[in-house]
């Protein structure tokens, strides 16, 4: 059996990302499972795990991984670190024709690199097999509650990135003392499930959307809203999930009813630009619009939430949105403002846990298809390009590559 050299690259993107695609313990498992695989780990001073931990697990420490067959990373690889003709795994942020990564994709094609995008690794039901979404939800919900506590001077939590890991962060939950507020959470995937772990961990009661709208509670509560709960057919008629995803223009937002009741919005739902926005800046100006803290985990700029003017950073996670002038102001500047948390790399705040989950999914769902036969074409479907050409599923990117 041919030897396979797997390289773990040092993350080179700025701001620094401390996550890893596989942890030292997982490297050890991998090496014990596959006789023909060796792991080469590029020395790094920024990872959430030490180089020595990888060495003890059996990885070979190197300064350069460009001679490896497969190179694993998390974020976009800087152009000067790309290895000609090799297979690279990372989140490329190119499949939606992201302008800022046009040069990256052009270079990948020039260097005849085989690019496999983590985001595109799916099963036959088109469900993603590997993602950091759960931790985006966990940290996003935590930050939302932290921000509410800070805004109203109710309690002070340590930021997630100052906690060693999730277990350490969970020690902060006992400090949360909320009045009888209502929290609306959108989405039904990994992100919202992660957010619910935190809300439940903080002993915040979950209620149905109908109860949320119609009942009074003397304790903090939250509701989880799926697409059907806040979108309605234009001109009436019942909601059809299939129709909504195929022809979202036939629908309009009905989120306003929740905005009149909610104090906090945690936005965890994927948004298609063809779908209705959650609310408009005109809605945010209405006196009955009650939401004063928004944790926008999705962080779509100029997307479904008009108050998300820009992404924020882990170091400076919140800003205020002045709805009457449609502009950003400093955080907690005015009672009439909406305070926005829109950090766009939330899993980086708990890099150890996020990496452990990610690596577990890699070993279970992805690696067997790399080492053995790619039976369900999982790797093939996620391959954006190879040998200097876009793969058929990604041929739509050609005009983007050509600069049109």
UniProtKB/TrEMBL annotation:
A matching Pfam family: AlaDh_PNT_C
Query: Per UniProt, where does NAD(+) bind?
Result: 229
What EC number(s) would the UniProt record show?
Answer: 1.5.1.7
Ordered alphabetically, the record's keywords are: Amino-acid biosynthesis, Disulfide bond, NAD, Oxidoreductase
- What CDD domains does this protein's entry cite? SDH_like (cd05199)
Which GO terms of type biological process are on file? lysine biosynthetic process via aminoadipic acid
Q: Boundaries of each Alanine dehydrogenase/pyridine nucleotide transhydrogenase NAD(H)-binding domain copy?
A: 166-342
List the catalytic activities from the record. Answer: L-saccharopine + NAD(+) + H2O = L-lysine + 2-oxoglutarate + NADH + H(+)
Active site feature: 75, 93
- Residues annotated as domain Alanine dehydrogenase/pyridine nucleotide transhydrogenase N-terminal: 7-139
Give one GO molecular function term: saccharopine dehydrogenase (NAD+, L-lysine-forming) activity
What the entry lists under SMART domains is as follows: AlaDh_PNT_C (SM01002), AlaDh_PNT_N (SM01003)
- SUBUNIT field: Monomer.
What name does this protein carry? Saccharopine dehydrogenase [NAD(+), L-lysine-forming]
Q: Which organism is it from?
A: Roseivirga ehrenbergii (strain DSM 102268 / JCM 13514 / KCTC 12282 / NCIMB 14502 / KMM 6017)
């Amino acid at each position: 059996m041919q030897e396979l050299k797997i390289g773990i690259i040092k993350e080179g993107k700025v701001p620094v990302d401390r996550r890893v695609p596989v942890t030292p313990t997982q490297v050890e498992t991998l090496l014990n499972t596959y006789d023909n695989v060796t792991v080469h780990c590029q020395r790094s001073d920024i990872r959430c795990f030490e180089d020595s931990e990888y060495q003890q697990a059996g990885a070979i420490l190197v300064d350069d991984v460009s001679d490896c067959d497969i190179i694993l990373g998390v974020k976009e690889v800087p152009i000067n670190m790309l290895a000609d003709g090799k297979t690279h795994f990372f989140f490329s942020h190119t499949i939606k024709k992201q302008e800022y990564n046009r040069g990256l994709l052009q270079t990948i094609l020039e260097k005849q690199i085989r690019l496999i995008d983590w985001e595109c690794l799916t099963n036959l039901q088109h469900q993603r097999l590997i993602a950091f979404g759960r931790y985006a939800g966990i940290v996003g919900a935590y930050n939302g509650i932290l921000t509410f506590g800070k805004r109203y001077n109710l309690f002070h939590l340590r930021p997630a990135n100052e906690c060693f890991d999730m277990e350490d962060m969970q020690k902060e939950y006992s400090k949360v003392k909320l009045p009888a507020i209502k929290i609306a959470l959108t989405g039904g995937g990994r992100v919202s499930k992660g957010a619910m772990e935190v809300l439940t961990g903080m002993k915040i009661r979950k209620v149905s959307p109908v109860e949320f709208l119609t009942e009074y509670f003397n304790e903090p509560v939250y509701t989880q809203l799926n697409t059907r709960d806040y979108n309605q057919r234009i001109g009436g008629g019942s909601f059809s999930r299939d129709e909504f995803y195929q022809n979202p223009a036939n629908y309009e937002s009905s989120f306003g009813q929740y905005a009149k009741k909610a104090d906090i919005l945690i936005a965890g739902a994927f948004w298609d630009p063809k779908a209705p926005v959650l609310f408009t800046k005109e809605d945010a100006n209405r006196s009955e619009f009650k939401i004063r803290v928004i944790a926008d985990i999705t962080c779509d700029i100029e997307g479904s939430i008009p108050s998300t003017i820009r992404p924020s950073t882990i170091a400076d996670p919140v800003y205020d949105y002045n709805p009457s002038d449609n502009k950003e102001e400093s955080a907690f500047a005015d009672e009439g403002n909406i305070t926005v948390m829109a950090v766009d790399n939330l899993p980086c705040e708990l890099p150890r846990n996020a990496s452990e989950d990610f690596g577990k999914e890699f070993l279970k769902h992805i690696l067997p298809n790399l080492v053995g036969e790619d039976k369900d074409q999982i790797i093939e479907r996620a391959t954006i390009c190879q040998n200097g050409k876009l793969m058929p599923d990604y041929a739509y990117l050609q005009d983007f590559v050509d600069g049109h």
